[in-house]
Every structure is written in C-alpha cells, then in structure tokens.
Hints:
Elements: E1 10-12, H1 14-27, E2 30-34, E3 44-48, E4 58-64, E5 67-72, H2 73-79, E6 82-90, E7 104-112
Parallel strand pairs: 1-6, 2-5
Antiparallel strand pairs: 2-3, 4-5, 6-7
Amino acid sequence: MSSHPPLDKVSATPAAIALLDEITADHGPVLFHQSGGCCDGSSPMCYPRSDFIVGDLDVLLGTIGDTPVYISASQYEAWKHTDLIIDVVPGRGGMFSLDNGREKRFLTRSTICVPAAR
C-alpha cells in the first residue's frame, strides 16, 4: 500500500458510513478506490482490502474511519482542487464493488476548494 500520508480530501455522509459499516460487518476491512472508468461512471468502488492491490501511482485521499480512500494519480491531477464526499443513493453498485446487490450504492459528490495563496 501507499506509504504517502493521507491528504484529508475525503469525507462521508452518515448514510455512507452506515452502509460501510454494514459491508465491513459482512466482509471485514475494505478500501475505496475512486473509479474513473466508463462502465461504472465515477463511483467509489468498495473492495476487500485483501483483494485489491494499490498501485504505486495511486494517491491516498484520506480515510473514512479506518477505511482508506484511493484515487489514481492521473485522476487526482484533474480533481486535486476538489474535496470528495462519499454518499449513498438508491440503485445498484458497480459490478465488482461490495455495495452491488444491496439496492443502494455509493456515490461521490464533490466540492471545489480554493487553493491556498502562496
């Protein structure tokens, strides 16, 4: 896993924390990887920690409780001035994400943050 400190650029709604707690009760420790793919839109994908290999170029955005949230370096460059909020909406999760089949899925919302003046 990445040895870089988290950037504290991610948070979660109470609904997302409740779904995350449900998933970790069923599957043990998990992680999120913010997807940038076409098939799943830009959903945060939730995987068992033991089943996902974090790449050398993945960026640790922060944690939700004990759950790390990663994003690819190229996608981070596009979103680096954005804080991400993990939320939950009705629907099906990504095909390989642990929220699939629960009739609710994780969704990323964002807020633009203003970079500090240098």
